[in-house]
From TrEMBL:
Any Pfam family matching the protein: PCDO_beta_N
E.C. numbers: 1.13.11.3
Domain of life the protein comes from: Bacteria
Family statement: Belongs to the intradiol ring-cleavage dioxygenase family.
Keywords: Dioxygenase, Oxidoreductase
Signal sequence range: none
Protein name: Protocatechuate 3,4-dioxygenase subunit beta
SUPFAM superfamilies (alphabetical): Aromatic compound dioxygenase
UniProt keyword annotation of Membrane present: no
GO MF: protocatechuate 3,4-dioxygenase activity
Annotated ranges, domain Intradiol ring-cleavage dioxygenases: 82-110
PROSITE patterns reported in the protein's UniProt record: INTRADIOL_DIOXYGENAS (PS00083)
Length: 244
């Protein structure tokens, strides 16, 4: 008998003991975003579970190469490889999953009109990429290490170096969002956003260890970031939306 796809079926409810509280005054933005009334859970519809879907033939040859995919000329910064696997709660690989990433450049600045940080823009770095997991659930990106940057949360708050991940299920209504941090970054425990997470185990699930076995000599260091979609080892997701 054929097993059901790990990304099919009804959406899964959020585990609120694992997720940060919605209202965390140390993270200033949460004070205005937190709901003021009791939450109402609604069931998913067929359209949310099955579509719209992403056409795999829309991927370009350089979509997972953020060093070259903006202008074709190399971006400035420390070259790194970010790789890993997408797994279900039983450790089984999840193939054909669309992964999108976006990040600041090597100086800590995003290519966004509202980013006013003083670091310069890199004319050859767009800051986003995408790829599809293979039959073993594996993915890989070539990029530059993003810089840390200040943000107006407190008097002198800084975001650690990080890369945003978006993972899609069987339709765009099934999307999980998270951030990957880098092993050894001293800003991780100082970040007000990270400090909203009540579990050290959940925080650790967001930190990618250095992987010298996948590094390219004289070229790029590598960091391994496995993404677990369900179960007790589930990666900490910002939205942890029901569905994957």
């Amino acid at each position: 008998m054929t097993e059901p796809s790990p990304t099919s079926g009804p959406l899964f409810p959020r585990d609120r003991f694992w997720h940060p509280p919605a209202y965390t005054p140390g993270y200033k933005t949460s004070m205005t975003r937190a709901p003021s009334r009791p939450l109402v859970a609604t069931n998913s519809t067929l359209s949310e579970e099955t579509g719209p879907v992403f056409g795999h033939d829309m991927l370009g040859e350089q979509d997972n190469n953020l060093i070259l995919n903006f202008t074709g000329q190399p971006a400035i910064g420390e070259r790194i490889i970010v790789h890993g696997r997408v797994l279900d709660q039983s450790g089984r690989p999840v193939p054909n999953v669309l992964i999108e990433i976006w990040q600041a450049n090597a100086g800590g600045r995003y290519r966004h009109k509202k980013d006013g940080y003083l670091a310069p823009l890199d004319p050859n770095f767009g800051g986003c990429g995408r790829t599809i997991t293979d039959e073993h659930g594996r993915y890989e990106f070539l990029t530059v290490r993003p810089g840390a940057y200040p943000w107006p949360n407190g008097v002198n708050d800084w975001r650690p170096m990080h890369i945003h991940f978006g993972i899609f299920g069987s339709g765009f209504g099934q999307r999980l969002i998270t951030q990957m941090y880098f092993e050894g970054d001293p800003l991780i425990p100082r970040c007000p956003i990270v400090r909203t997470i009540p579990s050290q185990e959940a925080i650790d699930s967001l930190v990618a260890p250095l992987d010298m076995n996948a590094a390219l000599p004289m070229d790029a260091l590598a960091y391994k970031f496995d993404i677990v979609l369900r179960g007790r080892r589930q990666t900490m997701f910002e939205n942890r939306l029901e569905g994957l």
